[in-house]
Every structure is written in C-alpha cells, then in structure tokens.
Amino acid sequence: MKLITAIIQPDKLDDVADALAQVGVHGLTISEANGYGRQRGHTEVFRGTKYDIDILPKVRFEIVCEDGLVETIVQKICDAAKTGTIGDGKVWVIPVESITRVRTGETGAQAL
Q: Matching InterPro entries, A to Z (predicted)?
C-alpha cells in the first residue's frame, strides 16, 4: 500500500476530485494548506500600496491505495491539476506499513 500526497492550487480542487472519482478512488482526505515553493509568493497592489504575499493558499490531498493503482492516480492528479504555470503543485508517494479500519478492526487491503 502507498500514501499519495498532493499539494495543488485551490481552484483545481473540483477538477482533481472529479478525476479521482473517475478512476474509482473511494476515500481521500482533503485539507487546506499554506506554503510556497520556488515562486516564493508574489506581490500584489492594493489601493496603491504593494504587498508581498509570501505564504500562498494550497489544497492537500491524501489517498491511501494499493500499489497497482499508484501510477494511475498520480497521473490523474497531475493531468487535472496542471495549468502549466509555476506553483501547480507537487505529488509524492510513500509506503504505508499498515492500516486498520477503526470500526471493524480490519487490516491491510481489506481496511481500504
């Protein structure tokens, strides 16, 4: 099993969620995140005054899946989140040693 974590632009939330539903992702966690990458934020002008926005809003997806679905899910996330501009996000995959469903006590793939 693997944990797929993706950080994407907030305006791509619905596109990514829809793409994941198409490939049969049954469960995921979505949370708000803030941060920056290479772009280090941006500058905005409000009423003639410049403001440096260093920390940008992002959305974080977390999905635990079986090994065979990893490439498909990562590709769907990338396709749906891509705008071609800096700050589109990142996706990473890490191994999951164990998982247990709290309600039933099931473990491993049955807990997904």
A: N-reg_PII, N-reg_PII-like_a/b, N-reg_PII/ATP_PRibTrfase_C, N-reg_PII_CS
- Residue given tokens 């998982």 in the structure block: 99
**In whole angstroms, what is the distance from residue 65 CA to residue 30 CA?**
15
Residue type (1 letter), 108 = G
User: Pairing state of beta strands 2-8 and 56-65?
Assistant: antiparallel
Greater confidence (46 vs 18) lies with 18
Q: Is 13 exposed, middle or buried (0-12, 13-18, 19+ CB in 10 A)?
A: middle
41 vs 63: CA distance, rounded Å: 27
Rounded distance, CA 94 to CA 5, Å?
A: 8
pLDDT value, residue 42 = 63
Mean pLDDT of the chain: 91
The amino acid at residue 97 is: E
The SS3 call for residue 71 is: helix
**Which CATH class for the 2-111 domain?**
alpha beta
Q: Choose between 42 and 16: higher pLDDT.
A: 16
